[in-house]
Description:
Layout: H1 8-29, H2 35-51, E1 66-69, H3 75-84, H4 91-95, H5 125-144, E2 156-161, H6 162-166, H7 168-180, E3 185-191, E4 194-195, E5 198-199, H8 208-214, E6 218-223, H9 227-239, E7 245-250, H10 265-268, H11 273-283, H12 295-324, H13 327-338, H14 345-350, E8 357-359, H15 360-374, E9 378-382, H16 386-389, E10 408-410, H17 415-428, E11 432-438, H18 442-455, E12 460-464, H19 482-487, E13 493-495, H20 500-512, E14 518-521, E15 526-528, E16 546-549, E17 557-561, H21 565-578, E18 583-587, H22 591-596, H23 599-605, E19 613-616, H24 625-628, E20 633-635, H25 646-653, H26 657-668
Parallel strand pairs: 1-2, 2-3, 3-7, 6-7, 9-10, 9-11, 11-12, 12-14, 13-14, 17-18, 17-19, 19-20
Antiparallel strand pairs: 4-5, 8-15, 16-18
Helix pairs in contact: 1-2, 1-3, 1-11, 2-3, 2-9, 5-7, 5-17, 7-17, 15-20, 17-18, 21-26
Amino acid sequence: MLIQKIDKEKLNLAANTLRMLSADAVEKAQSGHPGLPMGCADIAFVLWMQFLRFCPHDPQWPNRDRFVLSAGHGSTLLYSLLHLFGYDVSLEDLKQFRQFGSKTPGHPEYGHTPGVEVTTGPLGQGFANGVGMALAERILAERFNKDGNMIIRHHIYGIVSDGDLMEGITSEAASFAGHLGLSNIIYIYDSNQISIEGNTSLTFTEDVGKRFEAYNWRVTKIDGHNHTEIAEALEAARNEKERPSLIIARTHIGKGSPNKQDKASVHGEPLGAKELELTKENIGWPKSPAFYIPDEVLHLCRSRIAELKEEYTQWQDLFKKQIKDNPNLSQTWSAFFKKEIPDDLELELLKTIKKDSIATRSASGDMMQVIAQRMPSFIGGSADLSPSTKTYIKGSPSVEKNQFSGINIHFGIREHAMGAILNGLALSGGVIPFGSTFLMFADYMRPPIRLAALMKIQVIYVFTHDSIFVGEDGPTHQPIEHLASLRAIPNLLVIRPSDATETAAAWIAALNHKDGPTALILTRQDLPVIVRSIYPSQSQLKCGAYILKDSSKPPEIILLATGSEVSIALDATLQLQGKGIQARLLSVPSFELFRSSSEEYRNSILPPGCRKRVAIEAAGKSSWYELVGLDGLIIGIDGYGASAPAKALAEHYGITSKNILSEIAKKWGM
């Protein structure tokens, strides 16, 4: 329904409904952010009423437009929209805003509230997530739009704030989007010129429009309360074919409040009972009941739902004709969206191992070629490091402007944006995204990694150059605390394989881990390939830890190691056994998988009665106390590294079998 055909008074009534639902919800909770919802109500209603394509009874419809509220603190605006436009968000849910267990938490949470496309709140993340969603749309459209039939054709709409645009991640993501010409992005910048501390002129005086024009974005400026200007700007942006669009909408935060409009106090505080009453009086709104919705507004929203249902039905008919009735495309669609793992994939990955010594990054690179051939939904790239991380898929073109058939994505030196764009790719469905950089630079990506874990989405990170054994590049490139830091993130699966065979099993675990992200931690230096005809199968990696070399009798001492330190610990274990000591060695590629194993299994390989435990890892020690206890021995590195050849570093920091034996002798006289 065209906005121009709706009576102006009804449009104002609808926008005021959004304002007052939001203000009432914040007031009832005595917590929240009423300013943005009140200021963006006109924009939001025009967008949802005329432009956004969605299906409330099928929130995961693959061809829906995405709406990203990057300024997630304005969540009551989104919840009010979801309620009015037929999603499973009731009026009672609005009344339970910010209460324990409600569908309406303080910031939108993906997977928690129907219709919420992405978890937002940390500013800038939603902006960059939307770029990933737009890229996914282009990638999937390239594969499924045949003979002029647009199975995949949708836009990514978003409301972004001053705070979003101050964050550095938006500059990275905007540059990336402009470079690729992602014209399916339409962001509305809520330029209310207010942040928590006061007017944005305190810190933010740049010309945002010129900045985005330099990024190759189409920039338009409008009055964010003029419904005609809003609609015309959105229509022009939707017709743009070459560039993403930024609509700079001048708005008034807390619009309608006689004493708090355009004040910093309305950003994150309830209006207060008296000011809420004055606001309702000011806009001609009934003082009671709270959460009032005029019948005319409900009728408008229901008419839009009916229109969209027709579009949804038409798409289903086209999908059946184009995809379901076409065996080849149907099989491809299933491969993308079901993400099934071939039964023989681990065996095929093991076949790529041709040497008796190879860096796990190199082994992983060979295996990724096979994964890409067998699983077409496997798509990703690196932050300008694929020659080092070995993540380039050979024989496939790179993703470029107007060329989205490839697998390889060049993110540029934009680790933070890469992490958030990967999240957007995953949220779109149909893609298993991977991204890579050095482990040291996981720090740049921590916010999106945490959000991927919170949202329980499948993203795979390939982190190479995993220890001081990076060598001559020195301490700026040698991770120390990073393993412990990643292990501290709930629902992130961290795997540090000990050799090429465990790397194959690690990839299988990552591909199977569909309800959260996975970090693969890989070496720069070559490692001996463990002979599995002598030692237990690498498939035991799925348990998180397993006995690599056992004692002939119940163990007197247990050694535990990960990654490149496993072969060093194995040498020490064999020497202990040569002395008649009952020593057991555990390979511990994943703490998270080990925790998820049964208590019976954990106690069988790490019996509580054996307190002489030694952990060996060329990294910070803190995460190992969980496994060795306070009376155990941890051989690791709590300081920073140094610039030197890897062998010299191993000697200096004691990551050698000789030092392991020496430390054991000092502590227990063995």
